[in-house]
Write a structure and sequence with these properties.
The complex is a heterodimer of chains A (282) and B (352).
Chain A lengths: L1 H40 L1 H6 L3 E2 L4 E2 L2 H32 L2 H16 L2 H20 L6 H11 L1 H13 L3 H9 L4 H12 L1 H17 L2 H7 L16 H8 L6 H32 L1
Antiparallel strand pairs in A: 1-2
Helix pairs in contact in A: 1-13, 3-6, 3-7, 3-10, 4-7, 5-6, 5-11, 6-11, 7-10, 8-9, 10-13, 12-13
Chain B lengths: L18 E6 L2 E6 L4 E5 L20 H17 L3 H28 E6 L4 H14 L4 E7 L1 H9 L5 E4 L11 E14 L7 E2 L1 H8 L17 E5 L4 H11 L9 E3 L2 H10 L3 E6 L8 E2 L1 E2 L6 H5 L6 E8 L5 H10 L2 H9 L3 E2 L7
Parallel strand pairs in B: 4-5, 4-6, 8-13, 9-10, 9-11
Antiparallel strand pairs in B: 1-2, 2-3, 6-14, 7-11, 7-12, 7-14, 7-15
The chains are: A mainly alpha (282), B alpha/beta (352).
Chain lengths: 282, 352
């Protein structure tokens, strides 16, 4: 029997390792395909280059890096206040009956496929932006608003869990010391749950920077440096998504190289997030 | 006996799929659904099975005892019975057989046509018609883009590549057949008052030199350019016919299909774009180029110049199913179908 258990253990270990192997293979493949091109045209020309004209051999992705950050920033500036306000309401004020309706509804937001968000944005939001604010409507602003809604469920569910996990004595103690309800929330509960809230924001950011389908439909995909929030833009992910089907040769490799940059940015962001949340709680 | 250390984390006696058991000391005693009474210890190392003679069953052989042990081990570990697993494997096997069958069928008579998204809708129509005439044939039409289609033919991933542009010099080793011609229409929103632009004006608009409709004798408003992505056959043809050496402005919006461009232009009163003439509908307005309307007659007489070939690309001489499909596409009824859909036929049934 002991040997049989060992065998089963080994099989399970193998299964677990295979998922890591897949990650390793993907990483290897992206770098193997992308790095040669980056060396060929020079890392500086690739990352800081202003022009992306593959037919002329110009591969500069700086406008896309900037656009990626702008869109993510826009999404966070909409998603964080909305998400945290919703979390606090759910945890502290909502009557149970409202909570039982709200929570599944918020979870449902996460279940909507991104192409539906994109379509809704294209049909409803884009004309609104075009008619009332000007520009083509397919813009960073429209993209940010849609992304802001898309990251809401991530932010709300994780930060709500971290608020709920706090010992009840925190709130009781604050109230006993004469704090108002709001003071207890803002000065005691929120700082205590900070690491969970930061984690929720980072995860939301990850979703925002990686979103592709909805952004292809809403951003307009123009390859130039955006000068305002009403300008069309192209993010790193949409650059890959929109040109993959037609690319070949250097162009295809340049798209993999875009993937390399995206990969590194996401790794940096995640390590920063882990570092920050550990330092604050530790 | 401590359950936690027994090696069976959830091996408490109870009701299972196959029977009921109750705890007696450190042993389980149970009755299987088949009426066999048995006992076993929860040690994880021993699963002794005793047949208690309640039902008139023969004494189990050593093999049956072993089977019981394995079944118990299995159920305790995975939470489902070995027969369920057998059922699943059987199901998988059936699926596999079905898949193999389909695969064989496909290998026998199916061909794949892949490439330009501009040609794709027409190729689908043709394939449908062809398959209704030859029910034993299968033609799989896929998109992906002109360049991808040509690449697919080269690597034998597809039998026929569709291209909406002429072959580049490094692609000349492939065998290309023009199946029809298609015009590129410059489109604007129906609310736009402009009806006509010269080729030079179109070029200046798309290169970003003219940025406002006001410069074209229209109510002033910034022009919104809508462009195809790099690698698109439509874009390459537009670049060749209209732009020449000039670049399309980087400010232009980029959409990845004819349909997406049509969608944007039909929503935005200040947008201008270009799509395949066969895909123009009532939601957008085509512009005349230097007073010449993109009609079939003007294209055939060569007055309207933004015309490109739709190609079928082969790796070597076409043969077998691919050849008979090509012959069908070039036949009068198929060409008639194409011209009904807005393309320019290369063979005129009426002239024959």
């Amino acid at each position: 029997m002991e040997t049989k258990e060992k065998i089963i253990e080994k099989i399970l270990l193998l299964v677990a390792l295979s998922s890591i192997a897949v990650l390793g293979l993907i990483t290897f493949f992206i770098f193997e395909q992308g790095l040669p091109l980056i060396w060929k045209i020079g890392p500086k020309a690739f990352i800081l280059g202003q022009k992306w004209i593959p037919s002329k051999g110009l591969f500069g992705i700086f406008p896309m890096i900037v656009s990626s950050f702008l869109v993510t920033l826009g999404a966070l500036s909409i998603g964080i206040p909305l998400g945290l306000a919703c979390t606090i309401f759910l945890c502290e004020w909502s009557p149970p009956s409202v909570g039982t309706v709200l929570r599944p509804a918020i979870q449902l937001l996460a279940a909507i496929p991104s192409v539906i968000y994109g379509f809704w944005g294209l049909v409803v939001l884009v004309p609104l932006v075009r008619n009332y604010l000007g520009g083509p409507g397919l813009s960073i602003l429209s993209g940010s608003v849609i992304l802001g809604f898309m990251i809401l469920p991530t932010i709300i569910s994780i930060s709500e869990d971290s608020l709920k996990a706090l010992p009840p004595s925190y709130k009781a103690g604050a109230l006993a010391l004469g704090a108002t309800h709001w003071q207890a929330i803002w000065r005691v509960l929120m700082p205590a749950a900070r690491s969970g809230i930061v984690a929720s924001i980072i995860l939301g950011m990850g979703r925002a920077i990686g979103e592709t389908m909805a952004m292809i439909m809403i951003l307009g995909n123009a390859v130039k440096m955006p000068t305002s929030f009403l300008d069309s833009a192209r993010t790193l992910t949409t650059n890959i998504g929109i040109e993959m089907g037609y690319a070949s040769g250097d162009h295809r490799q340049a798209l993999f190289a875009t993937g390399v940059v995206l990969f590194i940015i996401i790794m940096l962001l995640n390590s920063l997030a882990i570092f920050l949340s550990r330092r604050r709680t530790g | 006996m401590d359950n936690k250390n027994s090696g069976f984390p959830n091996a408490d006696c109870g009701i299972g799929d196959r029977g009921k058991a109750t705890t007696i000391g450190n042993q389980c005693q149970g009755r299987s659904n088949k009426g066999i009474l048995f006992e076993f210890q929860q040690t994880g190392t021993a699963c002794r099975r005793f047949k208690k003679s309640l039902s008139p069953l023969p004494s189990p052989s050593r093999r049956e005892g072993l089977l019981c042990r394995w079944k118990l081990v299995f159920e305790n570990y995975f939470g489902f019975g070995i027969w369920n697993l057998g059922f699943l494997i059987g199901l998988l096997f059936i699926f596999l057989v079905i898949q193999l069958n389909i695969g064989c069928e496909r290998a026998k008579v199916g061909i794949t046509v892949a490439g330009s998204t501009s040609v794709e809708p027409f190729a689908e129509l043709l394939a449908e018609d062809y398959m209704s005439r030859n029910p034993q044939s299968h033609i799989y039409v896929q998109g992906g883009g002109s360049t991808a289609g040509i690449e697919a033919v080269r690597t034998h991933a597809a039998n026929i590549g569709m291209s909406s542009r002429s072959l580049l010099s490094e692609e000349k080793d492939l065998y290309a057949v023009t199946i029809a011609k298609d015009a590129i229409a410059v489109i604007v929103n129906p609310k736009n008052l402009i009806r006509d632009l010269s080729l030079d004006q179109v070029r200046q608009v798309f290169s970003g030199k003219i940025k406002n409709w006001g410069e074209l004798r229209s109510p002033p408003h910034p022009i919104v350019l809508v462009n195809r992505e790099e690698g698109s056959g439509t874009r390459e043809s537009f670049q060749k016919f209209v732009m020449g050496k000039e670049d399309i402005a980087l400010e232009s919006l980029v959409q990845d299909s004819n349909g997406a461009i049509r969608q944007v232009v039909s929503n935005d009163p200040f947008a201008i774009g270009y799509i395949s003439l066969g895909l123009v509908n009532e939601k957008v307005k085509t512009l005349n180029i230097s007073e010449i309307e993109p009609t079939l007659t003007n294209i055939e007489t060569g007055k309207y110049t933004l015309v490109r070939p739709f190609l079928f690309v082969f790796n070597g001489e076409p043969e077998g199913e691919a050849k008979s499909f090509l012959e069908f596409v070039l036949s009068p009824p198929a060409q008639e179908l194409l011209s009904k859909e807005g393309l320019v036929a290369i063979i005129h049934p009426s002239n024959k």
